[in-house]
Design a protein that fits this description.
Strand content of chain A: under 5%
Order of helices and strands of chain B: HHHHHHHHHHHHH
Order of helices and strands of chain A: HHH
Low-confidence stretches of chain B: 5-9
Structural class of chain B: mainly alpha
Oligomer: heterodimer
Number of strands of chain A: 0
Number of helices of chain A: 3
Distance between the termini of chain B: 45 Å
């Protein structure tokens, strides 16, 4: 890689790391300025959850039947067992089976 | 002598009980122990990132340094969508902020306890904050836990596993072969699915909670998929977060 390209890679990593540090610390800082209203809390929770939903939905759109099946399996196992590790493991197993079946 | 403080304090109440929260090495070790089990599972997750990053064209060193400094699966995977032309770009920064917005909520939720100590210690406690360590710390503090070291220790354990996994994945990348044989490529989607359902399942009335989030999450899903085809890379997540929040703001109290 050229020196310029290296700078943009490591510079970008630094930038992303800064954003992460900011998001980790800013919640506490904001709470010293404002109090949380139920509405604000609901909106922030909805935004946070929406990001997860967005990523999963996009992955399913890209990965097709196989990914969708894995997500459904993980969701069903999670709903029934309340055990995230089991849900993830079985979802992955479903995807592995999907690969084997050429889905 | 006032009576012992109640287990769960609001921010104003917490400020009146400064003697409550501490930050000790013992707490850190305790946190590490508590999350050691989950940490084992984070290793294949880190491997998934390592392999994917190297596949896209990052070097082993770059992938590892990123995991060390960023420590966020969502942000790191999302950033790969922008590789290489979008490194750096405004869209990348906004997408990073969008996928990390959960951390703002978590920081706010922990603030009644975390804000009781001085700023350097606050930041030390949350600088590696992540979903499982938040969940562990939050319930511990709600039940009367007083040591913020626990939060850092739990996060540290997961961080070690994440970095180790990245290293293994990046170095052994080609030899592991296609990720889809083991279903590792769906690991992030499956993990996030459990994180979406977890809080809903923890409520007293799960059905009611599910119906409450359906408008915002449903909107987010539609916007995310539509944006995948209509918007530049990464912006679909940002748009979905804004849309979901807007729907909730409109829907709340109705």
């Amino acid at each position: 890689m050229t020196a310029e390209a290296l700078l943009s890679v490591y510079g970008t990593i630094g930038l992303i790391a800064f954003v992460l540090l900011a998001t980790r610390t800013i919640g506490g800082e904001l709470m010293t300025l404002w109090t949380m209203t139920p509405r604000l809390e609901a909106v922030l929770k909805a935004m946070g959850g929406s990001v997860l939903v967005a990523i999963v939905a996009a992955e399913c759109a890209r990965g097709g039947l196989r990914t969708g099946m894995a997500v459904l399996i993980a969701a069903a196992v999670m709903a029934l067992s309340r055990r995230p590790l089991l849900a993830i493991a079985l979802g992955m197993a479903g995807a592995a089976a999907g690969t084997w079946l050429n889905l | 002598m006032h009576p012992p403080p109640p287990p769960s304090l609001t921010e104003p109440e917490a400020r009146q009980h400064p003697e409550r929260m501490g930050f000790s090495q013992r707490g850190i070790l305790q946190g590490m122990q508590h999350l050691a089990g989950i940490a084992v599972f984070i290793v294949p997750f880190g491997m998934a990132f390592g392999v994917t990053a190297v596949e896209k064209g990052m070097t082993v060193a770059q992938a590892m340094i990123m995991s060390v400094l960023v420590f966020s699966a969502a942000a790191q995977f999302a950033s790969l969508e922008f590789w290489p032309s979008g490194w750096p770009s405004l869209a990348l920064v906004l997408a990073t902020a969008a996928v990390s917005s959960r951390l703002v909520i978590m920081g706010a939720a922990l603030s009644p306890w975390v804000n009781q100590v001085q700023r350097p210690q606050r930041w030390g406690a949350v600088m590696l904050l992540t979903d499982p360590s938040f969940a562990d710390g939050f319930q511990a503090f709600q039940q009367g836990g007083r040591d913020l070291g626990r939060l850092l220790g739990a996060s540290l354990m997961l961080w070690l596993a994440w970095v180790a996994g990245t290293a293994i994945g990046a170095i052994a990348g080609e030899r592991i072969g296609h990720l889809d044989r083991f279903g590792i490529d769906v690991l992030m989607a499956a993990y996030f699915t459990t994180m979406i359902l977890g809080p809903l399942l923890n409520t007293p009335d799960v059905r009611r909670a599910a119906f409450a989030v359906l408008p915002s999450y449903g909107t987010a899903a539609i916007v995310a998929v539509a944006g995948l085809y209509l918007l530049p890379p990464g912006w679909n997540v940002v748009a979905a977060a804004v849309a979901g929040g807007a729907v909730e703001a409109w829907r709340h109290d109705r």
